[in-house]
Design a protein that fits this description.
The protein is mostly helical. It contains 15 helices and no strands.
Length: 384
């Protein structure tokens, strides 16, 4: 039976969905990766390939979501994808071959994209309908919260003597619990309430494509550090003691980033703040490879966590402002662009490491990508 929208519970459900499918389903790979490399004797190139498989799945699902018509309700798709994300995460416990790892992460990436996109559409639209649009970005805190949980899962499993397989199994169990919570907190609505009037074409709106390009570069620029920062720490014997805390620092910094950057965006303009956040993130990416000090790596983690979730939200907000028509298609196009950048980044960095013995060169390419994204966004802001 359909229920009335309760904004607080809806935001909580959206945050848990994104925490489960993205914060855990996608990003738990980062704290587990060093143990997987040791346990399975993976090269950095193979590790990057596994990460990229997840992002290829993410890209494919985002492209599929641009279809004008998807059968069934968005909520049903979101819940099914959330369950699939939990199952594929848990099944990593059994994976031993590279092919199995690639397939599971590919499917998991597709599931996480559907959850991220459809949760955002459902939550934002229902909040707008309930005249609580000011809360429409609050559910993105789930990314940071999920990253924190993924760090604690990896640390807890290692503390009891478990290996990388137990980490994946625990991640799947926690994600499944998240699915049950979301099913309760995000209720069904009447079919008539699901349909919203199509937006009218505004001839004054600028092309969205420069923003799509900037968002692609952002996806490439952040994901190399987001994938390998824990592996970078483990590779330095003097820094092994801070390894459990680096990924936790990323998650803690991500939690307040949405209100921080959104407030600045409302005051100074979304695109200008998008550009500024990309510059801050570029500094953080550079810090991860230019210094082997604990301080530099913690600053890198804080800069990464404190910007990438905020930039994600700013980019989607800017897309809504620039584009007209079905909001799901605009969000899907941006999500696909993001997925493209993410798919290229890890495999480039992994095989770059195999060739050079360092993440320095691919990370500097990522810095350049972030700076170009900042220039594009700033230029687009002046055109508006």
């Amino acid at each position: 039976m359909a229920q009335a929208t309760r904004p607080g519970l809806l935001v909580a459900g959206g945050a848990i969905a994104i925490a489960s499918a993205v914060g855990i389903g996608r990003f738990i790979y980062t704290p587990i990766l060093p143990s997987m490399i040791e346990g399975l004797r993976l090269t950095e190139g193979e590790a990057g390939l596994i990460a990229s498989a997840n992002y290829v799945g993410y890209l494919a699902a985002a492209l599929a979501a641009t279809s004008r018509r998807m059968p069934g309700s968005p909520r049903a798709w979101m819940l099914s994808s959330l369950a699939l994300s939990a199952v594929t995460t848990g099944l990593m416990f059994f994976a031993q071959s590279l092919a199995t790892l690639l397939v599971l992460r590919l499917i998991g990436g597709a599931a996480s994209a559907f959850v991220f996109l459809l949760t955002s559409v459902i939550v934002m639209q229902r909040l707008i309908d309930a005249r609580r649009g000011e809360l429409s970005g609050a559910h993105f805190v789930g990314i940071g919260a999920g990253i924190c949980v993924s760090a604690l899962i990896a640390w807890s499993a290692e503390a009891v003597g478990g290996d990388w397989r137990l980490m994946w199994l625990l991640g799947g169990a926690v994600s499944l619990a998240g699915f049950l919570a979301v099913a309760s907190l995000v209720p069904a609505v009447n079919a008539s309430a699901q349909a919203s009037a199509p937006a009218k074409q505004d001839p004054r709106v600028l092309s969205i494509w420069p923003l799509v390009i900037a968002y692609t570069l952002f996806g490439f620029g952040y994901v190399i550090t987001a994938t390998f920062i824990v592996a970078i720490v483990r590779a330095a014997p003097d820094l092994r003691t801070i390894e459990p805390f680096i990924w936790l620092a990323v998650g803690l910094a991500a939690i307040p980033s949405i209100p921080f950057w959104s407030r600045l965006g409302r005051r100074f303009g979304v695109l200008q703040i998008f550009a500024a956040a990309c510059v801050v993130e570029a500094v953080g990416v550079a810090l991860s490879v230019v210094s082997q000090s604990a301080l530099a790596l913690f600053l890198s983690a804080a800069a990464l966590g404190g910007t990438f979730v905020g930039i994600t939200a700013l980019g989607l907000t800017a897309a809504h402002q620039l584009a007209s028509g079905d909001p799901r298609r605009s969000l899907a196009l941006m999500t696909a662009a993001f997925g493209l950048g993410q798919a290229v980044g890890p495999v480039t960095a992994g095989y770059g490491f195999d060739l050079t013995g360092s993440f320095f060169l691919p990370s500097m390419v990522a810095v350049a990508a972030l700076l170009v994204a900042a220039v594009i966004a700033s230029r687009l802001s002046r055109l508006r």
